[in-house]
Structure formats: C-alpha cells, structure tokens
Design a protein that fits this description.
30% strand, single chain, alpha+beta, four-stranded antiparallel beta sheet, Immunoglobulin-like, 3 helices, 30% helix
C-alpha cells in the first residue's frame, strides 16, 4: 500500500512539473536546506513566465509555509509579515526582477518546515498567479558539527542543489605557530646564549686591560733598578778601606770622604753641603 501511495505521489509531481513547463511559467527554489539554530538561512528563488512585461509591470511576491495551501508568512504587496517571523524575515527582491532571496534570521527549532514561493503578475489579460509546488524543506539543527548552508547570491536561476560547508574538517587542521612550551624553551636558550656572549666579552676586556697594565709597569721598573745599582756603586766608591801607617805600628787610621750628590745615582735624601767635599779621619790604637 505504501509503495502504491509513493508511486501515485511521484506521478502527481511529475505531472505538475510537466504542467508548469508546458505552459511556460513556474518558480524555482532549492528542495532542501539545512540551518543551525540561532543562525540564519537564505532561500534563493527565481520565477519565469511566457508573458511580456508591460510598461508598468506589477509583480508581488508572497511566501507560505508548512504545506502548499499553508498560512501566508510574507506579502510584498501589503508588506505583511507573520507574527512568528516578526523582526526575523527579510525578502531581498526588487520590483521588475525575476529572482530574489528569502532570509530568515535567528533560526528557531519550530522554523523547521517547508516554504513555498508564490508569484502574482498583472498582465494585459488579467492577474496571473502561481507558486512552487515542492517548495523548500528546511531542517534546523542545534549541532554545530552538522553541515551549515552556505549563503548563495541572487541569480536568475538558482540551483536546486544547495551548497553546504562543514565545520568538522576545520577542527582537524593543524594550528599554525609555535606552542607555548617551544616558545619558553627558545626564550631560555636565547637568554643563556646572550649571557655567555656578555660574559665572554667582559672577560676578554679584563684580560686586555691586565696586559696593558703589565706592559706599562715593566719599563718603569728598569730605571728604578738601574738607579739603585748606580747608587750602590757610588756609595762603595766613597768608602775607603783603612790602611796602616808604616811609621805608626800601633795606630790604625781610617778616613771617610763625603762628596756632594752631583751624579744622577746619588740618593736624594742626602743633604747638600756647602763644600764640595769633606773628609773625616778616625784613628784607633792597635794593641799588640
């Protein structure tokens, strides 16, 4: 029984579609769309007819929901919007065009139903009206991983196969950049490297200063040592060894002569005398 009903329904649909094509007018819109609860959805539509536009064409758009003879939710002629869609329904369509978009904002779970576009055209023969027979079946889901509809642009003949995009594949894409642990390791390594370079620079500077100081002290010590040698030689020349007078066997004479420090090797501490040279004689009695 169920198979017979499906067969009859299919025949009726084919007959209706052939009827529209035969007479050259109809409404095209996607059969199925999926939206996310709280998001928005766009239902593109277009229509065609065999009559020519008059000088002042009068076309109006209406939308029904739930079934073919369901309630009207929008009418462009009277600017009517159903109470259920107040502030959430927008129709992008301009007078004289044959295509547009029905947009529903802030999707709710009870928005899940079928929507039918309906056209009214004033011709020379009178008012003509027709609408989409299968309509667009809208599915609303609250799962963000399910495919979401991709908003389509307004075209003259919208596709009956809506384009969808999923968000599941985006979660598996590798993240660009470095993780925090890698950044910390690199920062520590850079700090250690800078510390080593700074320490090596300070050490080399200190070694260079020490080398310059050693070279400066070495030449200064050489004049001082030469001066001490000359002073020692000068003083040794001034002292005289005691000699015995052959005539006086029991008396030993010794003399010390002091001269003025005219030579460079003289000690600076010796006082300068008025006479260039003074001599002091000492004598001792030699006991036999």
């Amino acid at each position: 029984m169920a198979r017979i009903l499906l067969l009859l329904l299919s025949v009726a649909c084919l007959h209706t579609a052939g009827y529209q094509k035969k007479y050259g007018y109809g409404v095209d819109q996607p059969e199925h769309l999926t939206g996310i609860q709280g998001g928005s959805i766009e239902i593109p539509f277009s229509f065609y007819f065999p009559w020519e536009f008059t000088k002042d064409p009068k076309i109006s758009i209406a939308w029904r929901w739930k079934h073919f003879h369901g309630e009207c939710i929008y009418n462009s002629n009277t600017h009517f919007i159903h109470e259920h869609f107040k502030g959430r329904l927008i129709v992008n369509w301009t007078q004289g065009q044959t295509s547009g978009v029905l947009r529903i904002l802030n999707l709710k779970k009870n928005d899940q139903t079928t929507y039918f576009g309906r056209i009214f055209l004033q011709t020379a023969e009178g008012m003509e009206k027709w609408q989409s027979i299968p309509g667009t079946n809208l599915t609303v889901t609250n799962n963000t991983s399910t495919p979401a509809t991709l908003p389509s642009t307004t075209t003259a003949t919208p596709s009956t196969h809506p384009q969808t995009v999923t968000t599941e594949g985006m979660k598996d894409e590798p993240k660009s950049g470095l993780d925090p642990q890698t950044i910390i390791v690199l920062a520590v390594a850079a700090a250690v490297f800078l510390a080593v370079v700074l320490g090596l620079t300070v050490f080399l500077g200190w070694r260079r200063k020490q080398g310059q100081r050693t070279k400066a002290e070495t030449p200064a010590r050489e004049p001082l040592e030469n001066s001490e040698k000359r002073e020692s030689i000068g003083h040794e020349g001034q002292y005289m060894d005691p000699t015995e007078n052959p005539k006086d066997n029991n008396i030993v004479y010794a003399s010390i002569s002091l001269s003025s420090p005219t030579s460079p090797g003289a000690a600076p501490s010796l006082p300068v005398q008025k006479n260039p040279q003074e001599e002091t004689v000492y004598s001792t009695i030699k006991a036999k």
